[in-house]
Every structure is written in structure tokens, then in C-alpha cells.
Design goal:
Mean pLDDT: 93
Strand order of the largest sheet: 1-2-3-4-5-6-8-7
Shape: globular
Strand content: 25-35%
Number of strands: 8
Structural class: alpha+beta
Distance between the termini: 25 Å
Helix content: 25-40%
Largest sheet: 8 strands, mixed
Order of helices and strands: EEHHEEEHEHEEH
Number of helices: 5
């Protein structure tokens, strides 16, 4: 089952990143990475057309209280959401408490190991503090960068499910899972 999540007062620090709730002042940073071709498509959404579109998404992030802003050297360069998963796809998890994570990173910062660092920090928080039983994460079958992050973080394949993008296509989402017990065994 989907656990309740509220990151309103949560700030996580890594060696290079601060993961924190989004703020109104982050609007330009959000637009700066979200309007770039190739960034949003990795997560199933089109590049932002203008600041107004980014403002609407920022409002959803703030009100939703479940998406971290990834701050690097004073600039927000991406996001990591702790999203509800499709319970209908996972009847076998009905008695367990979990969530699905999703992330996006500015193209200028790809390949530097920042996203695995952010995912590890969120895993520490969700397994250590919130005490979730499991985390899910998915990536499109053609998205090798996300597949690599998922692999580095210790998730294992569970199944492939259809995912309807915000631009009207249906993609294969390769879903992976990590149980708290497996995570704690490695820590």
C-alpha cells in the first residue's frame, strides 16, 4: 500500500547535494533545466514551453509535499519525487508499506554520479526514518542512464508494465524494487 509522505520539513545532505522541499524562488532554476530538449522525455513529459508552465509544476511540487529539489552549489538542478505507485500492478505488495521514486536531472549534470547520490540519500531517509517496507522505481526500456542509476542503487527487476506518458504515448516501464530488509543488509 502507498504510505503517507510529507517532506515539508525534511532536508537531506549528501557530499555534494542538498535535497529539500521546493520554494517559490526555485522557479527560474526549474525552468532552466525543464525546458531543455531531452530532459523531460526521459521521465515521460515534454519540455516546458515557458515560465508559466514551470510555475504550474512548481506549485504542484510545493503543494504535493513529496518532491525534493536537488540543489547543487546553490542552484536547483533536478528533482526526486516520492510518488504513489500503481497498486493495481502490485497486488503482492498490498500488505506492505511503500512508494515509487522518480527523478530528473539537468542535462548539464548527467554522468557525474549526482543522481545515485541523491537516490541513496532518499533511500536512507525512507527506509531509516519513515520505515517503508519497499521502494519501487521505473525507467523506460530505452533509458540507459536511469537503468544505470537503478542498478547502482541496488534495486532488482520485478516486472515491465505499460506507462502512459504526458505526451500521449505508451512506453514500457521496466520496474525495479528494493526491500528495506535487503537495503539494511547492505548498509
Amino acid at each position: 500500500m502507498n504510505a503517507r509522505i510529507d517532506i515539508t520539513n525534511v532536508t537531506l545532505k549528501t557530499k555534494r547535494l542538498t535535497l529539500r522541499p521546493w520554494q517559490e524562488e526555485d522557479l527560474q532554476d526549474l525552468y532552466d533545466y525543464a525546458h531543455v530538449e531531452g530532459v523531460g522525455q526521459m521521465a515521460g513529459w515534454n519540455p516546458h514551453k515557458d515560465l508559466q508552465e514551470s510555475r504550474q509544476i512548481l506549485k504542484l511540487f510545493i503543494e504535493g509535499k513529496r518532491t525534493f529539489a536537488l540543489e547543487y552549489e546553490g542552484t536547483v538542478i533536478g528533482s526526486l519525487g516520492v510518488e504513489e505507485y500503481q497498486e493495481a500492478h502490485y497486488p503482492e505488495l498490498a500488505e506492505l508499506s511503500g512508494r515509487e521514486i522518480g527523478y530528473v536531472l539537468s542535462k548539464a549534470y548527467w554522468g557525474q554520479g549526482l543522481m545515485p547520490e541523491a537516490v541513496q540519500a532518499v533511500m536512507n531517509y525512507l527506509f531509516g526514518t519513515v520505515k517503508l517496507d519497499f521502494l519501487l522505481v521505473g525507467h523506460f526500456d530505452w533509458n540507459r542512464q536511469s537503468a544505470r542509476v537503478i542498478e547502482k542503487c541496488g534495486f532488482r527487476y520485478i516486472k515491465t508494465v505499460p506507462y502512459e506518458t504526458r505526451y500521449g504515448t505508451v512506453e514500457n516501464s521496466v520496474e525495479s524494487i528494493l526491500y528495506r530488509s535487503d537495503y539494511l543488509d547492505k548498509v
